[in-house]
């Protein structure tokens, strides 16, 4: 058995009830202070991303500080969705940018930079990370940079520079996700390369339920695009967010070239295998308090 059941889900729901996995832990670290010491050492371990994750091979921390999302689904300001020929990217402007803190972030605050997507030619291989041998239709990456640096550019090659939260999306038959439709509809307005459209500022509500789950996987890895710098604290939520096949298909219509002859068929980096001598840990982080939503 592994952790939270994935295959049994038919709709978006949180299954990380407090004791769902505690009886199966291979290693449980119960003292909060110890967890912080481990985190300090762990942050020096780096590998290339994406990787394959197995619940039973991860180290279990039961007393992580809650991971906190502040402002990610607030209304206000402007949001833009852009086709850069490689992916569709969401950015916020004219508002206070969302903040990520707590969890494995070692007391630092990380500022929202952008959210983008990965997909492929079919619904069974569009994610970058693989969880328990299972691939999903898409993977969304919410990219944040450490607030102690001036901006993303300054942070992107620092060992503690970036925190990326990854969400899996699973295409299902004809069940449209109404929260996700703000982006899956808008993507049809940016089919041409280097075009941009405005979207509703509260267009990230589709990640809200998942982001408030108490269990996630975290490891120290790299960007999955150039320059592949090993500067990322990855945070992955294992439960897929359900969307419709049509919602995923919209992303495949984006052009990758100005001549409009080519679409972005796949933008997934293959799984990277850490070498045997690489000291490397995946942490399954849980806490007994809820992740606090924005006040
Ligand atoms: Zn990405």
Describe the structure concisely for a colleague:
11% of the residues lie in helices and 29% in strands. The chain has 295 residues and is mainly beta. The chain is built from 5 helices and 15 strands.
Give the termini distance in whole angstroms.
Answer: 37 Å
Strand segment tally: 15
CATH evolutionary superfamily:
Alpha carbonic anhydrase
**What gyration radius follows from the Cα positions, in whole Å?**
18 Å
CATH third-level topology: Carbonic Anhydrase II
Main pleated-sheet profile? 13 strands, mixed
What structural category do the secondary elements indicate?
mainly beta
**Residue share in helix:** 10-25%
Stretches where pLDDT is under 50 for at least 5 consecutive residues are 1-34, 291-295
Mean pLDDT: 85
- Domain count, please report it: 1
DSSP strand content: 25-35%
What's the level 1 CATH class? Answer: Alpha Beta
Could you give the order of the helices and strands? EHEEEEEEEEEHEHEHEEHE
Tally of alpha and pi helices:
5
Bound molecules: zinc ion
